[in-house]
């Protein structure tokens, strides 16, 4: 029996990755004044710097901004002007200030699941930024607990299951990332509802799960979430 | 009766502010090559930028680094070189990587209090950086819960008391900051043990508490903490 349902935040409840991708595009445009990026664009250089810095910065827009500044200085052999570096900082600030826009149909979906289950919100990233997004989403009251974590791996979910006093088999996670929301939960013996988002940060594509798994259902849009949770509940034994 | 004791992290369990102040000194030195800072130094400009950015960045070394970059560009009228901006980013990374050095006597003090009370660690700042410091401190096992929060105000403590299932009168907080550790707790009806640190970030000097309060004791060093907690326990009624 499923007792508790967890929801991811970014790109599950509200739009997020699009703002990061727009920031990367603006970054490429500025760098294009200094170096010929050719066809490859900035993508690989930036991803490399970001991944190296993840161990020091963790996730979030502040770390991304510092990585943009580093990448820009390296790729231009320090020719980039302070004015343009300031533009990079402003791009990062823009990401931190973006409006919180809920995905279409998500409020109704969360409310429907909340009628039958205790809900928790489990979101990854910068504490301060995530708290603001949760507050602005207007959904906070639907969740019993709001957990902002630095990484979503098996250890994190194990600790949360203990704090929530549920077994993995009593828990289903709803999210857009196979890597962060679904794989660790189903491998621990929980359940997953995958709601793919139209864009995914390359880093999140790195997972060991195929397109299907016996403890996971994929839905096309938030409207499909309540039925998927019910169906997993049937599999879990009523 | 005091049931639970909270400990602050930075400058209570381990050294922190010194690393930030060293970063500011290195920052001043770099800026000194561009502008005559005179007697006033960089202090006021940097504090102004940091405070303005707190609402967007929250606390921590990544926000400080971005504020250094902004302040440097503004004060040099964008004359600062990309090389020197890269040095600022490296200074910020240095703060994120500093070793975790416990204050002398703190391990023994925490262990002594742990013999008689349930302990929680309540620390403010960047989630990722604080988690690393907690892990490196070697003290994590002494605490029942570790709470990393974005701000330590009355609302935060109220929420934590509810989660911990204690009343304010059953809770004592140990920390170096009157603003963040002591004032909100004693105003809610809890107890405070103030352990002043030899340097304090200017931002933390902004509080409405005098040097003494009937629900607070001040101790000179960690060695005094266990006796102070016991004395407050007597005041609290056994």
UniProtKB/TrEMBL annotation, chains A, B:
Keyword Cell cycle set for record: no
UniProt KW keywords: Hydrolase
SUPFAM superfamilies named among the record's database cross-references: HAD-like (SSF56784)
GO MF term (any one): hydrolase activity
InterPro entries attached to this UniProt entry: HAD-like_sf, HAD_sf, PGP-like_dom2, S-2-haloacid_dehalogenase
Protein name: Haloacid dehalogenase
Species the sequence originates in: Dyella thiooxydans
